[in-house]
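In the current project phase, our protein records have gained a structure token line. A sample record follows, to show the layout:
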Amino acid sequence: MGPFDRGILLLYTTTLTLLFMALGVFLAGWPDPAKRLWGEINTSSNYEILWTLVVVYVIMGLRLLWKSLKPERRKQAVVHEGGLGQVRVSLAAVETLAEKAVADVPGIKEVKAKVESSPRGIAMHLKLITAPDINIPAVSEDIQKKVKDSIYNVVGVTVSEVRVAVESFKTAKPRVE
């Protein structure tokens, strides 16, 4: 549940709690405040405001109902079965590991990694921004081997494919001294 829905939930539950507290006070034998409040609200000049509130609260209630019934998408993870139980490594962690393995390669300025599952293990897609003076086929082959070895050594999962896409070239700006 995101911050927007949490805000709706806070407003919705606070309002309902206050309404039911007022109902409890009314049922407990102290009807004057509730009658006075109802008399103030129940005037023809306030009908537009009341209908607006009714529509807003019905929409908020339907949204909260929809959010509570909608199945939450589980984050995928790489699962490794050990002798003592299951070990899960999130795909975001695997992506970070691949990015760190590539960041040390000379000539690589930026890297974004994305992991997808494949029948033979996991597939890695790397988007690079490199220096313009590198040999891309040689560096790509080095990157593929580094990523495959790094993920296998740390996570214990075989990387079946490492795709490398160079999206742009970036030159380093000279330092001003």
